[in-house]
Amino acid sequence: MKLSRREFMKTVAAMGAAAFLSTYKSEIVEALEEVKDYWHICWLNGASCSGCTISFAQAVDPDLIEILTSITVGNSGLPIALPDYMETIHPASGTLAEKLKERWKKGSKGRRILVVEGALQKPKYCVIAGKDFREHVKEAAEIADYIIAFGACACFGGIPSGKPNPTGAMGLQEFLKKEGINKTVINLPCCPGHPDHLVITLASVMLGVIPSLDKYGRPLMFFGKNMHDELCPYRPYYDRGIFATKPGEEGCRFKLGCKGPIVHTDCAIRKWNSHVSYCVEVGAPCIGCAEPGFPDKFSPFYKELPSLPTVLGVDATKLGEGLIGATALGIGIHLVRRAIGKGKEEEKK
Fold first, then answer.
1. Would you call 279 a catalytic residue per the annotation?
2. Residue 42: active-site member
3. Against a cut of 0.90, is the pTM above it?
4. Which of 126, 197, 267, 275 is catalytic?
């Protein structure tokens, strides 16, 4: 591969997953063809709506057909992400499907990636083929070379873990820790998870490029930036104190309940539905689905946060209310510092 490990990580972070895939797809394909061991994938579904599977099925550039047929690994002739077991996509069902799962666990060739979609619950709330889902996960996790939690539910519990949470739903990493399985889980949250995140992460680990993770187990290349501070296209409105109070109005979405100031994700540059748009861009607030504590921590979704970051030490809502004065707004927020500094000099004189 032409990109070194360091360059790989930096370029994905700088360009975003979609742009990276489209620009370097040929290099990735070429590199994957040189991988010695084929990677076997087992995709398990717990407490979820299967929205992450649907999201993965809507991958573009490369699309799902390319992912499942054209981008092959090593000389196996097998594609990058054709799961040995994935109950919602593979054609097998019933006892045949369970045999595929057991073959993944007992196989001697190649390396293994476990992908989990959905939360883990108390015993007997999710039973597959007569065996508790918890047992399926434990058995697979113990032999997996890498473990990926895909979507908010698998990462941190998601909607199934919302109050009153009678099933005890929790994220994969928390569950494995309680079971004494001390393995790193790569968390790819959002509700649903984004296909770019998953495809890039799968390609990364197969190439031996292990992503750097934040304290919540999320790859920094996707979740290393604060959406409000660094990525949101509506940040200029915020800086000027202009806030929309109802959908369709011009301005920052903070008063509509946007949680962007406390969310780390690349939604604003990655976008959804063939990279067309994302929540905030179509008038809705960010609901914080990339963060631990979703949904309870961010509910009600359409209620503004009790506080928000300041602009040069001044609450941005006060800017909009004119408490600094029309002059500051007129010259632009980038000149406020100069105006304040000049005022202090005059006071000293």
1. yes
2. no
3. no
4. 267
Chosen CATH of 227-348 out of 4.10.480.10, 3.40.50.1700, 3.40.50.150, 1.25.40.10? 4.10.480.10
Determine whether 126 is an active site residue. no
How many other CB atoms are found less than 10 A from the CB of residue 35? 20
Q: What is the pLDDT of residue 31?
A: 75
Does the 5-223 domain belong in CATH 3.40.50.700?
A: yes
Mean pLDDT per block of 10 residues along the chain (349 residues) reads 76 78 76 76 94 85 61 61 76 84 82 95 94 96 96 98 96 98 97 91 87 95 91 90 89 92 92 87 92 95 76 52 40 42 49
Task: Indicate the pairing of strand 146-150 with strand 185-188.
Answer: parallel
**Active site (annotated) includes residue 49:** yes
AA letter at 264? H
Domain residue extents for the chain: 5-223, 227-348
- What does the pLDDT read at residue 67? 62
